[in-house]
Amino acid sequence: MFSSTREGLALALPAAIFALLLFIVPVGILLSEAFQSDTGWTLQGYVDFFAKPLNQTVFLRTLKLGVLVAGTAAVIGYAAAFSISNLSPVARGRVFGLIILPLMISPVARTYAWIVILGRTGIVNDAIIGLGLSETPIRLLFTETAVFLGLLQLFMPLMIISLLSAMENIPRDVIPAARVLGASWFQVFFKVILPLTKEGLVVGGTLVFTGALTAYITPAILGGSKVLMLETLLYQRVNVANDFVSASVIAMILIVMSFAANLLLKRIATARK
Amino acid sequence: MKNLTAWAIIGATLTFLIGPFIIIIFAGASAGEALAFPPDGLSLRWYLKVFTIESFRQSFVLSMGLAVFGTLAALLLGVPAAYALNRYDLPGAETIRTIVASPIIVPGIIVGLALLRYLVIPLNFTVTMALFLAHTALVLPYAVRVVSSSLNNLRSDMEEAAVLLGCSRVQAFTKVVLPNIRGGVLAAFILGFVTSFNQVPVSLFLSGPGVRTLPIDMLAYMEITYDPSVAALSALLAFMSLAIVFVAERLLGFSRYV
Lengths: 273, 258
Fold this sequence. Notes:
- The structure holds two protein chains of two kinds.
- Chain A is mostly helical.
- Chain A has two domains: 1-42, no CATH class; 52-271, MetI-like (MetI-like fold).
- In chain A, 77% of the residues lie in helices and 1% in strands.
- Chain A is built from twelve helices and two strands.
- Chain A has helices at residues 5-32, 44-51, 53-85, 89-100, 107-118, 123-130, 144-167, 174-180, 185-214, 217-223, 230-241, 244-271, and strands at 36-37, 40-41.
- In chain A, strand 1 (36-37) and strand 2 form a beta hairpin.
- Chain B is mainly α.
- Chain B folds into two domains: 1-43, no CATH class; 53-256, MetI-like fold, CATH 1.10.3720.
- Chain B is built from eleven helices and no strands.
- In chain B, helix 3 (54-87) packs antiparallel against helix 8 (169-198).
- The radius of gyration of chain B is 22 Å and the shape is globular.
- Chains A and B meet through helix 1, helix 3, helix 4, helix 5 and helix 7 of A and helix 1, helix 3, helix 4, helix 5 and helix 6 of B.
């Protein structure tokens, strides 16, 4: 540990000033824009935003999809992470590599695949028509289901990674011990695994929920203008209508929702103690 | 039996996560005109066509430049910051940490819009310049975090010994610290590169005539044309990312740092 404060600040401040000027100040001005009017401070931008039925729908849909994606990712993530944590070290390393592999691939590429799967001439529609379940292709793209699947695929690795690293903290013998003492798998999960991994769940849940809220590509490609989410709505408001007040309101909603999710999950995690 | 269940779960999860990507590879290798899976015969025509599309070539060069130089700039700012935060007792260290990490917390689309409104338009920054600054800011948190964790593993008495033995502070850094955190810096570079290259929301509003990052260009292309070339390009880019990560993993055990 060196003592010269001046030297330390000289090293650290360029990065901080850079982030401050390029990041915090412009974003701060953008967020303040909805509170300003010709006569002074106002909440009118927020009132107007939430008065529109379309905006309400989009807000609730974004919230709903975020919760659904994070919840589903948690359920599948626990099953997957528990299975992976019981593998031999070599197999575990390989499977872990395959789980994080998608994170390195462009989200555009990963989302584009769903067009091939869910499109009018896609695999699912081929199967549906082949099996005689329907005469004509069913519309699967531009539905909430398509956006849900795309988001789940995009963000599930983050949940699995978080849960896996939390599961490393479960002592080896605890689960067999609980089983020997007569606990059902249901009890083992809620009394042993969940309490010991809740920090991983908080991290994973926040990452997935926030990721789903703020994803642009997935709702843009798989939802289009039929299934708008807050991000795509923001883009549309700015590009089509030059509506910067709505943009500012949406920006604030997204940031507040991300923080709220993190706080809420932390609160739940500590309440269980 | 228990093992079988575990592998079934893992298999299903991996199919869901990686299956779509395999479909993309084959859809791009179609011999037909339309995007389909299974493809109408196999050929490499779309994989080759990608290289002849002028806008893809331009946007690839831009994305590459942003990813390389934006990440280098982020390291130039981030490595000293990480070093100072780790080795000095700074007043307001927590505040500095939060400020530097903030670009991760705020959705990219908002950053892009804010920079467009308050940097490009009033201050006459070029779009390219704004993109470069935005990508640097975006990678900065990763650079600081990865280099920090690498510094944490390096005992600080080594530098103190170097200084006692007659090195200047700067020499102690370049001769002792830097060689020891090389792996972390390289890992930060790769992580930053991949993040920047694949980034969409930040660049969404920051594009002008002839200035478009590759992912944005792909989005625009697929709105007009429904042929397999975007699938082919997606597959090629994915292979590029994987190759980089694979080499990094072989050279320095990249996944330790992520």
